[in-house]
Write a structure and sequence with these properties.
The complex is a heterodimer of chains A (591) and B (209). In chain A, a hairpin with a 6-residue loop joins β4 and β5. In chain A, the strands form 10 sheets. Chain A has a 5-stranded mixed beta sheet, with no helix packed on it. Chain A has a 4-stranded antiparallel beta sheet with strand order 2-38-37-36, with no helix packed on it. A 4-stranded antiparallel beta sheet of chain A has the order 3-4-5-6. The longest helix of chain A has 21 residues. Chain A is mainly beta and 591 residues long. Chain A contains 3 helices and 38 strands. Chain B is built from 6 helices and 2 strands. In chain B, 32% of the residues are buried. In chain B, strands 1-2 form a two-stranded parallel sheet. Chain B is elongated. In chain B, α1 packs antiparallel against α2 and α5 crosses α6. Classes of the chains: A mainly beta (591), B mainly alpha (209). At the A-B interface, β29 of A face α4 of B.
Amino acid sequence: MLNLLLGFASIACAAVMLAGVAFAQPSTPADDGQWTMPAKNFENTRYSGLDQIKINNARDLRVAWTFSTGVNKGQEAAPLVVGDSMYVVTPYPNILYALDLKQNGAVKWKFEPEPAAAAQGVACCDVVNRGCFFDKGKIFFNTLDDNVCAVDANSGKLLWKTKVGEINKGETMTMAPLVVHDKVLVGNSGGEFGVRGWLTAVDANSGKIAWRGYSTGPDADCLIGSEFKPFYESDRGKDLGVKSWPPDHWQIGGATVWGWISYDAAQNLIFYGTANPGTWNPELRPGDNKWACGVFARNPDTGQARWFYQWNPHDEFDHDGVNENIVVDLQVDGRTRKTLLAAQRNGYVYVLDRTTGEVLSATPFIRITASKGVDLKTGRIIPNEEKKPQIGKVIRDVAPASPGAKDWQPCAWSPRTHLLYIPHQNLAMDYEGVEASYIEGTPYLGVNVKMYGNGGGKRGEYCAWDPVQKKKVWAIEEDFPVWSGTLATAGDVTFYGTMDGWFKAVNAKTGEVLWQFKTGSGIIGQPTTFLGPDGKQYVAVLSGVGGWAGAVVSGDLDARDPTAALGFANAMKDLPQHTAKGGTLYVFALP
Amino acid sequence: MNQESKTKRMVGTALRFRSHGVAHPTQSFVRSCMPYFLVLLPFLFFSCEREERTLVVQPPSAQEASLPQVSDLAPGPQHNKAPSVSNPDENNSWMMAEGKRFYEAYNCVGCHAHGGGGMGPPLMDEKWIYGHEPQQVYATIVEGRPNGMPSFRGKISNDQLWEIVAYVRSLSGLTNQWAANARDDHIKGAPPPNSVPEGTPHNSSEPQP
């Protein structure tokens, strides 16, 4: 522990010295050179103040060292750096590695939580894990079989393990926790199984459950009380989590919490999205289906909801609302507003007032046919009646497809360029409603889906978005969906990876690709950057294709059936010709 | 003679036997403990019941011959393959159409899609992790498998199970092509089972983490 603290301190000192030199620009926060949570900071900007790697030297990047995770499933996690250690959590079986940065990534320790093998059968979209979280000497992460683990960051010893869900109901966990005020905030996955979504706070010291806020059901279960002041009329009223569903359907209503949580310390509020309502087939659940497909603002200490906004009332196409809500202040109509910035699955970049939940703007960032815009008076998205799903009818050319314009893969925000960097896909689909039978612990879908490129365009894109001007500044088209995360740096270089294995450094201002490196497998992980013990800036990313988009490779699927992988296989038929399974960490540095 | 007096007589014999070489104080101690012993004795006898050893133990009802073989390996020169079970549903269009209906109703389709797989492995390819024979497929559905296949024991009737087995095998061309389903009323999906070339099924490895 002492070592860790010393390392911590020395890096912090180095960072402070660096900060004095490099961060002349006032908008840039100082950086301690670490990366202690997947989103880098509570605001979820994924922006690092490090600037050794710059536009004019990024071309010299080369591999410093690599590490095989030993697991050949989709690697979505962010490698964390605390002091001289790196922490990586693998997909199922969720092995947590501590690597020694002073010895080119030699294993310091490894912790195996041994999740139930059966959990693999109820994981909708590959057996991924989106990373761990460091706080006060502990590493927190979730296992696929619904256990929250706290591990001593120094020794690798398990401190506590708390079971918070049940695989026999179809619940799994894939998200990365966020820790605020000693509350480990975790949510479930399983919207494809008709589970009931929740966000749970587990005490960081004892491992005891402090509170749980459900996403469906009576107000008391949803921790909706006197503090709840939603901006729009349609979100006000008693027990809407019951009344906006057919009788009792809320009990199997999905609205899971498998995405990102951000935190605004000034307001002491967390923000997180809820996923699709249970059964994808909307005809079987008339109503707004609250509180699915929306964003909650809650007090992290009590769990009490402050406001809610629903991206998709009565979601029709599995357009989950779990994407990251970035806490950033923006100039809107000439004045500075406290906003949330979110590129949502339904294809709009939203700017929300984070104190009230008011929509300030919602602008399409891909071709959209599923809806006709967002009514800023009522806050409601305007569905395209022509694309309304029906049982027994195939609706063609629904854009965006079920994974949305952007799925889980998180954006980055640079306070230097004032641009949002969006890694995303560009897919449309055929969508047919069919009957759905609810059998606990089995899929609850009720649709047949077949995806393909949207409007003849390429299937993926990495773009820079100006949320104030509400326009795309530049874009890099990619053949496959860009299913990796991204990060931005003070060196004005951003990074992302492609599903055919290229890791790229990009000029944050122009979109020019400065450097690229072909890794062993497709990249769907979250890149991170940090200062090594030698004072040099490094960039790390996991390579290993999979996830929903890459399941055709990681799950050996047969794409002759276009409905395989919930219809994603049809759009990814050619991926097996470009990449194979893998699971390797790559760390890059300048010479 | 009733049980109690028999017990007393036996204890008396035992004490007399022991008393020969034993010093007097101990003997009196033993005598003073007698009432307690008498109370405890029934329990002692109860716990000392001998294991019954019989040369032939009635086995559980599972019969070796009826179990499907899942491995290609069988040690020794004689390869006693499990007898193949033929499933009459595989020659019957109606039964296989019913199998498809149940495959969808029981949500098999949610994981295995229309044969291409998703959360579960594909069923239309030639790779079989737990065997392609009708009784192997049947066993996989009923027993479940450790890496995520749920056990449907007691959830699906036997007739429906064999219909599902027939439909599942039809996806890779392992059933009578004249009887296999020809069309699908839904979204254009996988090639219909009656136009899938007959597969050469082989055992595949367990899913790798």
